């Protein structure tokens, strides 16, 4: 692993690589901190804390993503819509990592490709919102913007924007990442163990339609065993951390100069993405992320024109560097077959090679009749199918899946083979922002996607 130097105060770091240009540009979705002194001291503290990831790991990820862009690997990126500080417990973190590892084994089999495992974890604490405020029973307060900004509790104190939460987010990210590293390096990721967990999924009669694929995987594992495969070498996996780079002050304070290359890396995570609401081509987010060496994602909604996509490539990946840029499309099941082909064709014709990933969640959000923000499992799967159809038709690579999911038995998305109905929301809806696939729905999606990948 490579050492990165730790700069003292970011604003005085030299050379600066234009890392503060964003401060002069239009910026949206930022907090209004209530206490200037706390704001100053929090950023000062963040700028001296150790990096959360190392530049060498970030470089490895860029290589992995480059192979996914060429159809030689597949990205699985998943986790909460919004992580919470209270939710950073051993049980919840292990359940999420476990579910991602289980999904990855199924996808590896289906795709016959390495699966790059990445959590929306260890830093996914800031949320862009459609509205600045929330009204409940006649009382209006600032909207919840993620634990890095304010609390979910609906009181004026909790909803105030408190900059010390950025430091809290750093420490929660550090402890989450530490546990993820321990699990994925310490034996928890053993292929035999993960395979054993997956047997629990098909034991449920509701999942009998997935039995034949599960049996095939079982036979493959036995075949490996019979051939004398070294299972002890399969007890560790690479696992990368990612989040939306929304609060640029936080990202800036954790950006450090790599001592090997002298180049800036945002050490808050391996991979950062820019959301649909903050990808203004002349805005602050695009400018800042264009200047760090990490692989970058951009969410593309149904309103994205091919020219928008080409302009993003020019800004974020001017050298057309393999693995640098990932487009995460979130068109909605109704739009994807109409909107995606032109986008992909124009980008492909331009000679750029980006990694195409589907986020089948954010274009399919609806309100249930009993008032919960939800998604239908069938709509989510329809968008995934549309994504594969479009890429198959064009001969391009459907390179990955980006999902909001949890390892817990929550009820937030409707449907699935063992269906969740809206009545279940009353007891088991836990998300503080968008609805997530629960453990079983996540595995079901992996089985369905594995089927699609194996038919390619
Ligand atoms: O996760 C994405 C956004 O933060 C979320 O969908 C916004 O939700 P809202 O429309 O309820 O603000
Ligand atoms: C905010 C998110 O998505 P989008 O930018 O696609 O709306 C998200 O991924 O939680
Ligand atoms: Mn979300």
TrEMBL record:
It catalyses: D-erythrose 4-phosphate + phosphoenolpyruvate + H2O = 7-phospho-2-dehydro-3-deoxy-D-arabino-heptonate + phosphate. GO terms for molecular function: 3-deoxy-7-phosphoheptulonate synthase activity. Binds 1 divalent cation per subunit. The enzyme is active with manganese, cobalt or cadmium ions. Its EC number is 2.5.1.54. The keyword Amino-acid biosynthesis applies. It comes from the Bacteria. Mn(2+) binds at residues 81, 362, 404, 434. Belongs to the class-II DAHP synthase family. This is Phospho-2-dehydro-3-deoxyheptonate aldolase. It comes from Arthrobacter subterraneus.
